[in-house]
Amino acid sequence: MERHLRSILIVLGLLLLQTTFVPLLSLGGTVPDLLLIWVVYTALRRGQVETTIAGFLVGLLQDLVSTQLFGLAALSKTVAGFLAGYFYNENKIDQTLGTYRFLLVVGSCSIAHDAIYFLIFLQGTDVSPILAATQFTLATTAYTMAVSALPMFAFSRRLAT
Amino acid sequence: MLERLYNLFLQFREYVLLAGLIVLSLILLSLNDKPQVRRIRTIATVAMGVVQNQLSFIPRYFQLKGENEALRRVNMELADEASRLREAKLENIRLRSLLGLKGQSSRPLITANVVSKNLTLLRNSLTLDVGNADGVKPSMPVLSESGLVGVIVAASDNYSIANILLNTEFRASAKIQRSRVDGILAWNGQHLTLKNIAKTLDVKPGDVLVTSDYSSTYPPDIRIGIISSLREERGSLFREVIVTPGVDFVRLEQVFILTAVPDSEKVALEKKVTQLFNP
């Protein structure tokens, strides 16, 4: 119960950061996705089933406070959580979180997440959905991976001590 | 049989769960235009806006230097414009009296602070700290000193949400100030464009774009921006006209809401005629 309450508070804090401060770090309209990093972290700690549900709920919360398509973040984060769950290994949790493997998992899940998100999001616009989705996906994935290096270094320091 | 099914479910529970949540997400996607969903989202966005409002001093502190420079520049431009406007007003009064035209009454404006911005994607929007209690209603135009900002799409008691020009749902009837050529202003995800402009029409880069007289939402002659470039499309009768908005949405912090709602009689008549010809 306490664990769930702590997760809820962390998600709300990250959501506030994502909507308030992260836009200030925008590079050419691209911003990192802190909530996706949290979903991947949860997957590596808790496994596939819990993270698939957590991904859906986090995405739903993100949908509620944005003016984008409702249900789209829920869909993409559900899939991202499910995929991240494949990298769960209860014997190597700290090793995965504190090494470059964490970045690779974040990158893989971010590609799937952003590809789904932008391919649906760009429907009905004049731009080519595939081309634009590729550009947005690569840019957002690179930025999210770069930011996910911060928790990775924190975990690696904890691993070393 | 049931036990076998249950065992099968346990064996593939991750996939069953994934499939279930994907179906649920798709159902939510299909409910996007439901007023109930819009209402819930407005409440959630407003709740987030209240928190963001408390924290808004931090980004403002970082933007202070740039804001000071921008304000000095705007101040210079406004001083120059005020001088020219005084001249124009005197000339206007003289001409109106000559022509016997009725003076147009100016509409009241509501001042609003931008409490949060969504400027990273295709459906960009602003959350403003004024709402129904201040007289704000959906479809009211939003302006700044640099021109048209967007339109109110949802309002609660104390907050409202505005779709800005850079939003794929935004449309406005616009005209070139110099040549009076009309078109439809829209954001295609990459550029703000003026649509339906035939290659033969008189449009040049640098032309000023304003709202046209045909819009039922926006009053005429509100500055929108300037034509930045023209692109010829092979095999098409039309050309792509790229518009640079006058408003700098990144630095935008205060806006004005024009308390003008569309003339319901005009809108109803246009809707009736549209339905008549497009049953």
Largest sheet, spatial ordering of strands of chain B: 1-2-5-4-3-12
Question: What is the arithmetic mean of pLDDT of chain A?
Answer: 88
Number of E-state strands of chain A: 0
Broad structural category of chain B: alpha+beta
Provide keyphrases for this structure.
heterodimer, A: 161 residues, mainly alpha, 76% helix, B: 279 residues, alpha+beta, Thrombin, subunit H, six-stranded antiparallel β-barrel, 6 helices, 12 strands
Provide a quick synopsis of the model.
Chain A has 161 residues and is mainly alpha-helical. Helix content of chain A is 76%, strand content 0%.
Give an account of the 3D structure.
The complex is a heterodimer of chains A (161) and B (279). Chain A is mostly helical. Chain A has one domain. Helix content of chain A is 76%, strand content 0%. The model of chain A has no long low-confidence stretch (mean pLDDT 88). With 279 residues, chain B is α+β, with helices and mostly antiparallel strands. The model of chain B is unreliable at 101-105 (pLDDT under 50). In chain B, the strands form two sheets. A six-stranded antiparallel barrel of chain B has the order 1-2-5-4-3-12. A six-stranded antiparallel beta barrel of chain B has the order 6-7-8-11-10-9. Chain B is globular. At the A-B interface, helix 1, helix 3 and helix 4 of A face helix 2, helix 3, helix 4 and strand 1 of B.
